[in-house]
Amino acid sequence: xxxxxxxxxxxxxxxxxxxxxxxxxxxxxxxxxxxxxxxxxxxxxxxxxxxxxxxxxxxxxxxxxxxxxxxxxxxxxxxxxxxxxxxxxxxxxxxxxxxxxxxxxxxxxxxxxxxxxxxxxxxxxxxxxxxxxxxxxxxxxxxxxxxxxxxxxxxxxxxxxxxxxxxxxxxxxxxxxxxxxxxxxxxxxxxxxxxxxxxxxxxxxxxxxxxxxxxxxxxxxxxxxxxxxxxxxxxxxxxxxxxxxxxxxxxxxxxxxxxxxxxxxxxxxxxxxxxxxxxxxxxxxxxxxxxxxxxxxxxxxxxxxxxxxxxxxxxxxxxxxxxxxxxxxxx
Length: 331
Known about the structure:
- The chain is an alpha/beta fold.
- Helices cover 42% and strands 13% of the residues.
- It is built from 11 helices and 9 strands.
- Strands 1, 2, 3, 4, 5, 6, 7, 8 and 9 form a 9-stranded mixed β-sheet that branches.
- Helix 1 runs antiparallel to helix 2 and helix 7 packs across helix 8.
- Keywords: Membrane, Transmembrane, Transmembrane helix.
């Protein structure tokens, strides 16, 4: 939980910044008071710790830390498919991370990209294809093991959930956008499969998605996904803009977003976990969040050396593209 000392520091910092910006103690006091009242009135409490623990710390077969297969384990099988879920279970994963998307006729399906081009033998935006059109595509068409998994279909959300429950896998539902639609669909899935309350997490890079999910169903375990510097840099570290002014501005926004994640957004949304890019996690970082009752999960951890570090030093769960061998990350 947030310590009282934390709140004093945070709101004192806001007060001082506003004073410096406006040179008005009155304005600073009013704005700080408004933010405090807003946080008290509109924040969501986290789900009970024992429920979050069952979801985020399931018993691993080997007795180690939880291991979540990214997109079902995109190196070991075609991503976001039933075959990937089965392979993840066979290879010892405790859970799978799956990406939620929607077809033109509103059917929730698994797909990471906005288009089907990269993973299937089709082309075009997912939201422009009917479910019947999507089902005719080969989801293994561009995978390194396409011969082995030839003909694998893009599954619906319900098919994926049923497969995960069958294999007793924890599910990390990754939601990219459309907060209202995603929250509504997931709420219906949770009502249909109540076991998900103790075996799944809804996560997103977008705080508004998590807030809407908690608003729709406060009993769902949720997590914020965070990659520092994501507004100014791509996942591979290259700058999103070449102009100096653009780099400076997006860098400032990144600093503010990072501060908000660590001091405001997690509490406002009442999350139980934060999913953080692996290069920014240390023992001190894990401890920081542990003091606030929030679990840290690292992504994407793809080498034996990194996995050993998470298993024996950090002692926290991680998300990986492969449970079998070292591989390059899938962005």
